[in-house]
Amino acid sequence: MVDCMIRIFSLLFVATCLGCTSYAAKKPNFILAMGDDQGWGEMGYQGHKSLKTPNFDDMSKSGLRFDRFYAAAPVCSPTRASCLTGRHPNRMGVFKWGYPMRTGETTIAEALKKAGYTTGHFGKWHLGSVRADSAACPGANGFDEWASAPNFYENNPLFSHNGKVVEVKGESSLATMEVALRWMRKVAESDKPFLAVIWFGNPHGPHIGVDKFLKPYAKESKAMQNFYAEITGMDAAMGELRKGLREMEKHEDTLLWYTSDNGGLKPNSMGGLSGKKGNLLEGGIRVPAILEWPTKIPEPRTSSAPCNTSDFYPTLLELAGVPLPKDQPLLDGISLVPLIEGKTEIRKKAMGFWDFPAPGRSRRARAMLEALRKEQQKGEQKPAPKEGHVEKQYSTKSFPGPAAWIDGDWKLIRVKGSPKLFNVAKDFAEKNDIAGKHPDKVADMEKALHSWQHSVTLSLNGEDYKK
Predict the structure, then answer these.
(1) First to last CA, the chain
(2) How many C-beta atoms surround the C-beta of residue 298 within 10 A?
(3) How do strand 64-70 and strand 301-303 relate by DSSP bridges?
(4) Rounded distance, CA 194 to CA 146, Å?
(5) Which of the residues 36, 351, 388, 462 has the least number of beta carbons within 10 Å of its own beta carbon?
(6) What is the pLDDT averaged over residues 142-160?
(7) What angle do CA 357, 363, 365 make, to 5 degrees?
(8) Using CA atoms, how far apart are residues 235 and 310, in angstroms rounded to an integer?
(9) pTM to 2 decimals?
(10) Would the CA dihedral through 56, 58, 61, 64 be positive or negative?
């Protein structure tokens, strides 16, 4: 009898251990999707009177909706750099659009690859060249597969597919998703987990809607018809993604996270927020964000905790069970795993924003890719430009340009002259400057902001890469 009981308990113990091992070994898939210039208020679920976004609305009803999610910067390339590294973009010299990341950075794709993930990037890159021999291209930053454009793009887009220029027919967002899903279906045939980064070119201008998505907006002006149609096209692409995941039977164990790279430009795009793309008021940096993951978020929730795009990197690494690299440069983001698991709504680490006064580097994606395609057709491809190095040294005593510091409900913003203070939980339109009523709070936040900017400047000067 005793021997029998021992055997039974032994079998139960082994079965339990095997179950734990199986659960731990099954790493989730990750999809990070992002719109281009979509404002916080440009979602049907935000109560927009005209926009049709049924798939985003459905995601908000089934997943985790973030009502205080921030882009790390008020313009595109810097925010993209933060998504991949968990660091403020100024640390790596990505001040404005068109700047490349530095080669000393560790990207989320590189970190997850070491843990057995297959990685892919699809859509807008905007962090340097998409030539295969470039140190700034997606392939050199950890992506196994990539179909990427160097900047925003429109319908029938040209992509650099692992370095070779290809054209994909169709509406901009749907064409992007077609390529991404083709890769995901191939990866799904194996047991390897994947990371897919899908960065749409819409609704960045110029706005060119297709007939299918223009019809719902017949009563709007021509300009707004095309603008709204691009967002609805992007929504349809997200619908194709969710449908594809279900067909692959991957939807349960796939984290799908959507956001935008910065605030919008249209007057009605911010949902009542002040400011717009290009500045550090709420309308410039607060963006829509939804996380859908049936396994971990079985019921819909809404979070008002402040979060930002620098949080992607540490969050996904923790969820994958991947420790931070030993040579990891200083992070600005934090893991949001406790928030995702519903254990907290409090962010203990403040968030810094700094719009460094540097010019953007404008380049037209299609013209660049057409030039590259001609080179490839002639067999005379030019070498890629050298990118991704520390270009110069910056002062650690003065920190020019607008900056902001968000600590819980408090937001200090400094543009010109004296800083302003807002309680954005009560005054999300930033109409009532209460700096005069809280001088001690202003002093504390100014000190914290100054200290953070000093740290960022040390990183900017290359100190992180010397460790």
Answers:
(1) 62
(2) 10
(3) parallel
(4) 13
(5) 462
(6) 97
(7) 140
(8) 24
(9) 0.93
(10) negative
Kindly tell me if the per-residue pLDDT of 207 is higher than 80. yes
Residue 19 DSSP class: H
160 within some domain: yes
Q: Kindly tell me if the per-residue pLDDT of 235 is higher than 50.
A: yes
Specify if 135 maps to a domain: yes
Is residue 115 in some structural domain? yes
343 falls within a domain? yes
The tokens for 258 are 């959507």
Number of structural domains, the chain? Answer: 1
**Band (267; pLDDT cuts 50, 70, 90):** low
Q: What is the full DSSP assignment across 370-415? A: HHHHHHHHHT-PPPPPP-SS------SS---S-EEEEETTEEEEES
Residue tagged 């100014």 (tokens) = 446
Residue 246's domain comprises 25-349
Q: Which two tokens stand for residue 436?
A: 């005069």
What's the CATH number where 114 sits?
A: 3.40.720.10
Q: Which amino acid is at 466?
A: K
Tokens of 391: 């270009």
Instruction: Report the length, in residues, of the chain.
Output: 467
Residue ranges of the alpha helices (H) in 26-87?
54-62, 76-85
Q: How far apart are CA 195 and CA 144, in angstroms?
A: 10
pLDDT for the residue numbered 14? 34
Dihedral class, residue 93 (left if φ above 0, else alpha if ψ from -120 to 50, else beta)? left
Instruction: Please report the beta strands in 266-336, taking only residues with DSSP state E, as ranges in sequence order.
Output: 286-292, 301-303, 307-308
Q: What percent of the chain has pLDDT over 70?
A: 94
